[in-house]
Each structure stands twice: as structure tokens, then as C-alpha cells.
Design a protein that fits this description.
mainly alpha, 4 helices, 0% strand
């Protein structure tokens, strides 16, 4: 499922990129390869974590990517954060805290 999801995502993104495609410069290929390697290692670690822990424990870590992507957007791309981002972060943090508090009930 992971393979086909990534394959179809790459195909769709590739088709949408065709009208504006520019070949990467030789130095950019190394950056692209490093990005791919980090993505593969990250995906492998995520799958390993999901196999070892409950989903309600792993989910808050997955959603923290929203926080980090917003932070990286501000630092590297001078983006302005909107109120909706902070509301989403608050909702995610609140749900994570609720899962931490009530998620491990014995039964």
C-alpha cells in the first residue's frame, strides 16, 4: 500500500510538473538524492515505530510535522503564519494530550 501510494503520488506530481519542468542542475542532483535517502530512512523508522507501539501513541508525533513545516516555512521561506495554523496546532496538541491521558485504558 505504501509503495503504490508513493508511486501514484509521484506520477500525479510528475504529470502536474510537466508544463513547468526544469531539469535540476548537476549540484542539485546530490541534494535530491539526499532528500530521497532521508525520506526513505524516515519512512522505514516510522513503519518500525508503528509496528512496535500503539497508533494512539505514534499519531501525535506524526502530526507534529505540521508544526515543523510551519516553522521551516517561516525560517526559510519568509511565510506568514495564519490563525488557522495555530488553531490546527492547538487541536492536535489537545487531542494528543487527551490520548495521553485517556488512551491507555485497561479492559
Amino acid at each position: 500500500m505504501l509503495f503504490f501510494g508513493n508511486l501514484f503520488g509521484a506520477l500525479i506530481a510528475g504529470l502536474l510538473a510537466v508544463p513547468i519542468w526544469n531539469w535540476p542542475a548537476p549540484g542539485q542532483w546530490l541534494i535530491l538524492a539526499a532528500t530521497g535517502l532521508v525520506a526513505v530512512v524516515g519512512q522505514r523508522l516510522l513503519l518500525h515505530a508503528m509496528a512496535m507501539a500503539d497508533a494512539n501513541f505514534i499519531a501525535p508525533f506524526l502530526y507534529s510535522s505540521l508544526l515543523f513545516s510551519g516553522l521551516l516555512g517561516v525560517v526559510f521561506f519568509d511565510e506568514v503564519l495564519r490563525l488557522s495554523l495555530f488553531l490546527g496546532i492547538a487541536l492536535i496538541v489537545a487531542s494528543g494530550l487527551l490520548l495521553l491521558r485517556f488512551g491507555h485504558r485497561g479492559g
